[in-house]
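Why do we care about 3D structure at all? Because function follows from shape, and shape follows, mostly, from sequence. That is the central idea of this module. The next example makes it concrete: a single protein chain, its amino acid sequence, and then its structure expressed as tokens.
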Amino acid sequence: MARATEQDPELRKVKNLVESGARPQWELISAEPRQLKRFWGLFESLSVDRGVLVYRWEEGRPGNSWRLWVLPTACIEEVLEELHSSPSGGHFGIARTLDRLKEWFYLINGRAAVEGFCDRCDVCAARKGPGRRIKAPMWTMISGEPFERLATDILGPLPVTARGNRYVILFVDYFTKWPEAAAIPDQSAQTVAEALIEQVVSRFGVPREVHSDQGRNYESEVFKRTLEILGADKTRTTPLHPQSDGMLERLNRTMLYYLAKLVDDNQTNWDSLLPLFLLAYRSAVHKATGYSPAQMVLGRDVRLPLDLRCGRPPNGDPELPYVEGLRQRMCDIHQQGRRNLVASAGMAKDYYDRQHRLLTFLEGQDVWLYNPQRKKGRSPKLQSDWEGPYQVSQRINDVVYRIRKESRGRPRIVHVNRLAPYKGPEVDRDGQT
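And the structure:
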């Protein structure tokens, strides 16, 4: 970078001015290019380290300030290639790539550079694709401490790997957003229970609550008994309503997005990519907390390949004893993380609720049920997605209902978003109109 700085006409001029210690009068640089004038305004925050310009960045979050390399134009593509396109970069979007850039470098018009690079990424481009229903207001669940509430899901089936794996079991902490993922050969209840112990309990202790969908493995006696022995509670989503666990659904999409870009042609090495995906995800700033999962759990950033290649400029701030400093950092990060989670959840709920409406159904009322599941022997193109009428037998809460098709039929628990008023002829519970 020192050579690139010296070869950059504007940065070389700025470096020479900083080394001289004399800030020129505005009249002398008013006719210079816009970038040089921008650095004139930042002159007091600039220094030179081993021939490279360094900018001292200050922000109102734990750590207060840190030093960033001023990135020469000639190095932009190479750095963004590492931050975005490498396995540890993860081909994440503009926001996360920009956040990573800001951890090491200062770049005028950095957002435009990142946007242009991501738009030009062939791997990303190859992966991207181009009557009003009831939508209940959003319910938000905010956890207050690490690994208090855990979400879990199983992704697959995927192509069988050389190690015999076909599925991915995922765990993610609601508070820190820390993910754990393991490749597994099957999704039996025994395998799921063992993964919970190995991936979470052995590392972070027992969560108070585990949230999952209604898959047979999670509803099995083996899994329930495991949680009972551990002393953890179990909650679940309603069928065909993945929004009730949107955090995990987004992680699923992000993981598939990552694997699809880096998997080999026969798609059988995806399990070997999981550790690098976890590295990439844990080290990226999460929008909800404002920190990376690594910062929320470890109190520090994890070391990435770029750290070994060029390091990070030292902050120059006095260091506290390690344990005391770590305790203070964790306290500050968690307090700010809680505030960010509450603010993020509030903004998401306000935005979601403006576009949605809630309809209340009464006990005994007939309703349609949205059920787009494919049926064997039937063409999905000719299949009706709505079935019924069902009758509401119980309103469990504002958004969850128990319904049944016949008076003595098996009840179903569904989310209100899957229901619609039935306006056809009256139907008795024996199915006669």
